Amino acid sequence: MTTDPLVALRPWEAPEVTSWGRLPMNAVDRRSGALPLDGDWRFQLLSVPDAPVGGAWSSARVPGVWTMQDTADLPQYLNIRMPYPEFPPGSPTANPTGVYEREVDVPAEWAGRRIALQVGAAESVLLVHVDGRPVGISKDSHLAAEFDLSGVVRPGERATVRLTVVKWSDASHIEDQDQWWHGGITRSVLLYATDPLYLADVTVRAPYSGELRVDCRVRDTGGALPEGWYVTGELDGQLLDQDPEFDRANVEDERVSDFLGEARLLTTAPEVRTWNAESPELYDLTVRLHRADGTVADISRHRIGFRDVEIVGRDLLVNGERVFIRGVNRHDFHPLTGRTVSYDDIRADLLVLKRFGFNAIRTAHYPNDPTLYDLADELGFYVVDEADIESHDHAHEIADDPRYLNAFVDRVSRMVLRDKNHPSVIIWSLGNESDYGANHDAAAGWVRRHDPTRPLQYEGAAKLDWAATDDASDIACPMYAPLEDCIAHALSGEQTRPLIQCEYSHAMGNSNGTLADHWAAIEATPGLQGGFIWEFWDHGILQRVSDGRPAGRGGAGLYDNGVAAPGYRWAYGGDFGEPDHDGAFIADGVVFPDRKPKPAMYEHREIAAPLRIECFKHEGIVLGNHQHFRGLNWLAAVWELVLADGRTLTAPAELPDLCPGETAAVPLPFEVPRDGGEAWLTLRVTTAEDEPWAPRGTEVCVPQIRLRGPAVAADVAVDGRVEIDGEGRLVHPLLTVAPALSLWRAPTDNDELGGMAPRWRDWGLDALVRKVVSVREDAGRVTVVAEYAGTIGVVRHRQVLTAVEGGVRVEEEAELPEAFHDVARVGTVFETVAGLDLLEWFGQGPWESYPDRSTGAPVGHHSVPVDELFTPYLRPQESGGRHGVRRFTLSAPDATGLSVALDEPRQVSVTRYRAEDLATAGHHDELVPRPGCVVHIDAAHRGLGTASCGPDTFPSYRVAPGIHRWSWTLRVL
Ligand code: GAL
Ligand code: MG
Asked: 392 C-alpha to center of ligand 2: Å?
């Protein structure tokens, strides 16, 4: 039996116990001037929390989860299901428990001071001992815990700090978010000292009007507050006024309490520069606590922003403007550390988001690292700050379980207490996927009383009735709601609150189809205001293939461009031998695990364009400013005239001086040549100067408009021969596999989880059997009729091959029976000889695009090496497509090769992989590139949609049965 009282309490199975000995949360930042305790700590992993601590120590890095370090306990990925069968609040008997220990030399100059330990975050139960004495307990895995060590450690002496972290607990049941399970200390540990008289909290109210109010709470560990203390404040160097009404600190008979001092500082900022996500103006606020003799006892520094957030009718307003929420859900994630993220990591995340047009972050599904909020203030993001509550597997039972009441209120209130002074935080969220119960209402009541300045949201409450007015959510914030339902709600006349989806457009694999359609509707429908894409990260962990272990910090630099170095791979669920897991569902972000943007990001960037081409009228090109607050002077631009004949002309662009929402016509900068066929006008928009988030010259958007449609050019038939083999297949010196009909693609995650791919396999689309029906040859022209049989139907296919000047024209027709009512594609596939390594095309690009995700890819003359066309989605799948291709060449360095001209803009892909190569590989490193190219030309290609979690693509992007016709001409260069 253990004699340790903290262990004897078995706090890991007591949900009522949220903490013991823990100091109240507050908004005073103690990070600077503290003694950092990060680094290597002595470490041992116990198999159960009450096992005796042995004599054998290894070491572990703090901050860091042990599951990514050299221990037997590895990461496990589960979405909804708990990793063990015990009902809440139970936990399994086998319960990895990490014991971290180190010595700390307490500075001698801290004599007489109040000393506190801060543990940035530990999951899921933290027990603290110093020199063998129990100090405290904390739960709430994504917020800091502080403990007063004043009477426990002696300045000038060495103390032994032990942090015991129990992995599974009652708290795990409310931390059942869709992410890897880990154990350990994930944020920095530090020791700090203050005067016994100290600032216990500072609450800033900084509205748009510039009337600043700063409320300070003061305590003294010595007992009663001393006489005569006072607080001063400075805003950008200007002294603040004391609120005489509120100056209770020094007035004996009005003193509210002997032990709690309160003071209020006021000022009105002259000509206030207000904060918004486009122009995040910040002020430095310094609060000083003085002793009676004027000396400074404590200081708290803040960067504050003046702004209002309110809901008026069904609009969420920031500074009175109905802003669009172009959001993303972000986890604290890193492929080498799991959950520990540095300042540089977070900054890099936010720079990517800014550069791709995002203006909002939901901190899914727990308070993120404190640095996230500092940087969101500084770089400009609207933040939905979410409490660490998700009880997904046992949601219904826990929402009303009084044993968890403390935990709900504790987690929500601690988040608010920590983050209340950040201008970026505009909405509080009660958590995620935890049903709706009395525990939520209790937490909501606390927030509404404590911080009436911000709206509150909770998906689980609002989903019961989007139009309700009496639940715990001020916003209808559904997830993955069909677009038509959102529009219908906004038009119903029943809408009572803003509709901003907390999750939409699930970014798993090759995804985010119909994003542009969503935004067209959002921008056109009053009552719809945006949403948060699910999600930022693909949570792939860098794994050594040889022994299956996480690479850990040693893996730095062992990846590039979304791809892990040879010998490594991005692990997803199941790759660490977990018996229960949810596979690649963890890889559903708009960036790869190394933060390389997926092609969908370019789509988003264009949809969010601050400057747009509205239309082309006789007075010129109409430009519009689509921002809410900024003018256009931070942007520079160049016009491009793209002509089908291969020319791209450029001209400098003068941008008009437009306020948000304004439009103006500017003259067409070019004489459009009469010849040259199809013509497009592109505006390449970049940053005019360095922005805090991007250097000068960074591309911001590439709006485009068509000036002239294509000219019809007919191939000239010539006397010549088209060579075919005995099966009616084209024989060509540059082709190793002759053109054949293709109806299948390597299933995307959306295809698999949305149910299309299993159907396609049932139909036999992946293994159609070709049978020649007839071959007819007459001078220079061959007509081959074939049948492609699946299991439920036969597709009749006719190919007419004609010798034309310089090559062969291929006219095709496929007749899909009703049974094949929704196939992946209808088109041609062939393979080329090796050595044709460069693709040049006229069409949309340069990045990957698909029929329902092609807004961000302007028409132009593009050129990309074949090896770079492919997108390395974690689980290999259809990838690398280019939409709207009019013609292309595939060439060798000596300019030999082939060209293909298409009858109409078509979906084309050129990769090193056949669809079946991709469909049978689990990870990118299992793929063996073929020497030649696998080329697809599609008459029709199914959109991507988001059906892995949420709506499928729209019917208009699906491939209908019936007759499809397309043609193309192959020439030798
Ligand atoms: C949501 C959930 C997220 C994630 C997503 C699917 O239901 O809130 O945490 O699981 O689905 O990737
Ligand atoms: Mg969930």
From this structure: 5
